[in-house]
Amino acid sequence: MMQDILKLSVSERILMVEAIWDSIAENDEKLELTDEVKELLDDRIEAHKNNPSEGSSWTDVKARIKNQF
Fold it and tell me: Name one Pfam family in it (predicted).
């Protein structure tokens, strides 16, 4: 299936992704986080509360991402 998708033009693949995304957005089901993911998020929030200056600002993160591309 992936081979067939890669044969499509970029614009056709973008349209396909948009259609898939729209179908996900229309779905009333909510994705539930696993207990493992919830625990990881709780740990990260607690780490941030204990040392808020340790992380990076959104501005810095966004700049690093842009510089990668």
Answer: Unstab_antitox
> Please, what is the Cα angle at 38 between 41 and 45, to 5 degrees?
25
Task: Please state, in angstroms and rounded to a whole number, the distance separating the CA atoms of residues 33 and 42.
Answer: 12
**Nearest by Cα to 54 from 63, 67, 45, 62:** 45
Is this model's pTM higher than 0.70 or not?
A: no
> Measured at the alpha carbon of residue 23, what is the angle toward residues 20 and 29, in degrees to the nearest 5?
125
Rounded to 10 degrees, the C-alpha dihedral 20/22/28/31 comes to 50
**Of 34, 55, 33, 35, residue with least CA distance to 44:** 55
Terminal CA-to-CA distance of the chain, rounded, Å?
Answer: 28
Quickly tell me which residue has 């780490």 as its tokens. 47
